[in-house]
Amino acid sequence: MTDLELLEQELLKPSDALISDMYKIEGDILLLGVGGKMGPSMAKLAKQAADQAGIKKRIIGVSRFTDTQARASLEAEGIETIAADLLNEKELAALPDAKNILYLAGNKFGTTGKEAFTWAMNTYLPGRVAERYKDSRIVAFSTGNVYPFTEVISGGLSEDHVPAPVGEYGQSCLGRERVFQFFSEKYNIPTLIYRLNYAIDLRYGVLLEVAKAVLSGTAIDLSTGNVNVIWQGDANEIAIRSLLHCDVPAQLLNVTGPETVAIKWVAEQFGKLLDKEPVFSGEVQSTALLSNASKAHQLFGYPRVTIREMIELTALWVKEGGVTLNKPTHFQERQGKF
After folding, report:
1. Rounded to whole angstroms, how far apart are CA atoms 107 and 122?
2. Four-point Cα dihedral 241, 244, 250, 255, nearest 10
């Protein structure tokens, strides 16, 4: 393992606040859709926090596990894994009971042309899961895509803003929220809707995409000229700790970093670190998809990893030719077509 990978592991370790909260989270934790971008590191974080708290708690990850290496990596950390298709009613019913559900399942990329599957995953499945786990508390992952674009000078939209998603992906995610809200009140399920926008680590995310473009000399489209980002480790912590803030009716929580980050500025920072001159195209628009996460910061504090640390780490990763995931964010998309 390289020094940079070791540093990354340090930045993914549980904080004292998470370890303290783990004492208060009663029961086992079940992660549905653990095989995605955030699931593996979130499961490992929960396991580490429980171990360091000295409490016995099952951490169980459910996924189709088309990547057997990812499953083996989780099991090596003491995380129980179950291969299941959540859309298969028998397989869903056969899953173990758990007091705490982290719901990460969903479909975004490839929505165009697979709209029916996207709605099934994002809107139908939540109802089936809520029926199955009506005696649990649920943190349900959603997205800032449920909001409309807003003026950059607004500081981002807070949880009390009326959703107005652009495109079928965002609409289906709003559907997911509404279904969880309905079942929260029907069965008295403590629930929190976790609106994330955008998590990054060294292998994927907005910053990596900009860094790679700078390094290769590819023109960076500035039409969506501003974004929010948060380090994946911080986003994972907030998700787990949010189990203590589930309620009826379901709570809404924006999760992202405190800054409105200018893409041009990010590219210029990478230009200095990578000794490359960024290339730009397009004109910065006055609106962007931006979230105000001050409620999350009030509950959990500011993220531990800063924007400049994320930029510096990403630049080093790109320089060293670190492994990356082929999972672009499409943060430039303004028509909601994914």
Report:
1. 6
2. -20
Within 13 Å and on the Cβ side, how many CA atoms surround 260? 18
Phi, psi of 192 (to 5 degrees): -135, 130
DSSP 201: B
SS3 call for 113: coil
Predicted pLDDT at 3: 75
**Predicted structure pTM score:** 0.95
**H or E segment to which residue 226 belongs:** strand 226-227
Can you spell out the DSSP letters for 247-306?
A: BSSPEEEEES-S--EEHHHHHHHHHHHHT----EES---SEE--B--HHHHHHH-S-SS-
Q: How far is CA 105 from the centre of its chain?
A: 11
Interval 280-289: pLDDT, tens: 999 999 999 9
pLDDT-derived band at 331, boundaries 50, 70, 90:
confident
